[in-house]
Amino acid sequence: MKKVGNILGIIGLFALVIGLFLLLIQPEVTAIPLVIMGIALLLILVYAITNFQDVKSFFTARSTKYGSNMLVLILITLGIIAVINYIAVRHPYKFDLNRDKIYSLSDQTIKVLKGVKSEVKAYAFYPPDAPETERLRDLFENYKYHNSLFTYEFVDPIKNPERVNAFGITSTGPRIVLKSSERESRVKDPTEEGLTNGLIAVVKAEKKKIYFVTGHSEWDIDSKEETGYSLTAEAIRKEGVEVAKINIGTERIPQDASALVIAGPKKLFLPEEVKAIGDYLQEKMGRLIVMLEPEIKTGLEGLLLDYGVNVGNDFIVDPMSRAFGMGASIPLVAQYSDHEITKGFDAASFFPTSRTVSPVQTIPPGTSVKTIASTTPTSWAETDLESVKRGEVSFTEGVDTKGPLSIAVAVSKKHASATENSPDIRIVVFGDSEFANNKFRPYSGNGDLFNNTVNWVTQREDLISIRPKKRASSRIFLTQVEANIVKMTTMIGIPFIFFAGAVALAIIRRKK
Amino acid sequence: MRNIIAIFKKEFKIYFETPVAYVVFGIFSLISGYFFLQIFSYFQRQSLQFLQYQAAHMLEHMNLNDMVMRPLFLNINVFFLLMIPVITMRLIADEKRLKTYELLMTSPVTTWQIVLGKYLASLSVILVMVLIVFIYPMLLSFFGSEGGLSTGSIEWMPLLTSGIGLFLAGASFAALGIFASSLTESQIISAIVSFGLLLLFWVIGWASAGAEGILKEVLRYLSLLEHLDQFTKGLIEVKDIVYYFSVIYFGLFLTQQSISSQRWR
């Protein structure tokens, strides 16, 4: 009986270990290890009953008493150590002993962080081995250090495609999302400057809402058809910007409008409507995105001219596009200016049936008008629109303009009385409206280009600039002789001294 | 205190009046010197290339602190993991083997005094190894101050913090090593057990790479090698110091408990 009990006890112990092991290595708690452990405990119980005398004497032995005392003492010590470490982690304190304090935040950032009164969480979509990750983690830790309401999480985009999707992250777009309970902002630049500006946007900015103008057969943000704008509307919503429609013929432009979007109107705007838009821009420091189509007169041309944008009466043709599987009427854009919208942007975009929009010769005072995207040198602006309809275009020297052609323009204007920090009027005009529809939005850089544009026009905060800190360069160039000295000293000199010492000691000891 | 010093002196003599410590230093300086030369010559080649291609902005990024000394310290940390069990393996195991253990146990010194005296002696060996590492930046600054193409000099403060960090890391390894030594009378077993313990604490850090959320943070924090990182950046964080001292205290506490348990086992 006792022998059987012994064997069962050993099996039980084994089973217990295996059960624990399974429990630890499995990502989720399943029934199997629990069942194994249950059986194990049962077997051990059988052992205890069959060997009752031994068990009893073990528990009453002096060594058991001391042993369990010791175990308790060790556990208590471990507990105290854990608590102390927990406190140290929760209340970080650190000293930056570098000459230029390269691992400390700038005063501006610290000031912004002091103003953060509710929780802000940063989601950074970088894989662990991305070159940005380490520096970014340092930055996040620093932000957290100055305000514990700031938390962060790295999301590996390869392991978590569903979260990438939920946040609407793309490989060319911003990869850091800062989120508070009510707002969010996106940061493209993984630097202190980028993060702090993003933080200002989350803390200070009002909720953003953009209105798509209706009433002139504009593309519909609710339509899921190829010509619809539902994908674009969805992408903008994912970035935390509300999207709504407005008929400015019958409704006033609401107070909460962060920007108006006029996406591909096919009918003329009434003079009152144009005036309403003009007033909105003037009085509210309004923001506007206009997306035009060739051959269609919209009535907005005069207003745009006032802001220094010339809408060309032409049709862009680019034979190069055939190389990308597109028709010649779909010019390719791969040349962007250094504007905030297109900074660092390197994905090509496609603009089906488009006209030129360009800065006027004499730009109105106080206004900045810049081309942000241009077509390729092989393209030209066809002025004979009849020939386009017939489908037999050709470049006419002296009449048609040769590429690169300006296809998108960004305007920013400040009032004469404006101070440094007051907001400006911002307008972006595209010579095409189909590039952001459901059919063309997924192409290459199209979607990101439009999203970046929305971000720029809805931005009202002042950006602050922070000079990136880095360790001062220190480098030396050794001559061959010097290099040899260093090599000899480190590889032969120093070890030799120690080994010689060892040998000498060994000899002395032997003589003794 | 006097008892601790007496034991410290005895152990110190064993280290430094026999070839043991010098062989350790010889091997250590050979390997760390090799590390250093590899990293430094790569740094020099890179600098020369940038100079050749006149990539001035890339040259501005080159600095001896982050690109030579920091990787060197981090590499030596791993090397310490393998080296320190050898230093601590005999501390208590040897007493048992030589049967002087019973003598020590019945003498009027407490177990804490025994443990501290022996532990401090092993720290003196580690301190010398850390000082050996400082020979390399001294060599560089000796040649680097010549001027010409060489610009700027090494920043010494981050090196000082790295040195402090490396010493604390070594001290933590030694605390676990002395515990392993108290478990057995065989030096070999003692060394293997402390390898095992240290490797376990190292591997915990790898496990954190696969984990998510709070578990990831906890595993990262527990890893013995993770805490030197901030020191090598010239940062002294209270939590890193607390961590190292926790490991040291716990290691010594376990040793003390293990020795005391001999009295009733």
Features:
heterodimer; A: 512 residues; alpha/beta; Glutaredoxin; Rossmann fold; four-stranded mixed beta sheet; 40% helix; B: 265 residues; mainly alpha
Set out the fold topology:
The complex is a heterodimer of chains A (512) and B (265).
Chain A: H1 2-25, H2 31-50, H3 52-60, H4 62-90, E1 94-96, H5 107-114, E2 120-124, H6 133-146, E3 150-154, H7 161-167, E4 176-179, E5 184-187, H8 192-204, E6 209-213, H9 230-238, E7 242-246, E8 259-263, H10 271-284, E9 287-291, H11 301-306, E10 309-311, E11 315-317, E12 332-336, E13 349-350, E14 357-359, E15 367-375, E16 380-382, H12 385-390, E17 401-402, E18 406-413, E19 425-430, H13 446-457, H14 480-511
Parallel strand pairs in A: 2-3, 6-7, 6-8, 8-9, 9-19
Antiparallel strand pairs in A: 2-4, 4-5, 10-14, 11-16, 12-13, 12-15, 15-18, 16-17, 18-19
Helix pairs in contact in A: 1-2, 2-3, 5-8
Chain B: H1 2-17, H2 20-52, H3 56-61, H4 64-88, H5 90-97, H6 101-106, H7 111-133, H8 135-144, H9 156-182, H10 187-210, H11 213-222, H12 228-232, E1 235-237, H13 238-261
Helix pairs in contact in B: 1-7, 2-4, 2-7, 4-7, 4-9, 4-10, 7-9, 7-13, 9-10, 9-13, 10-11
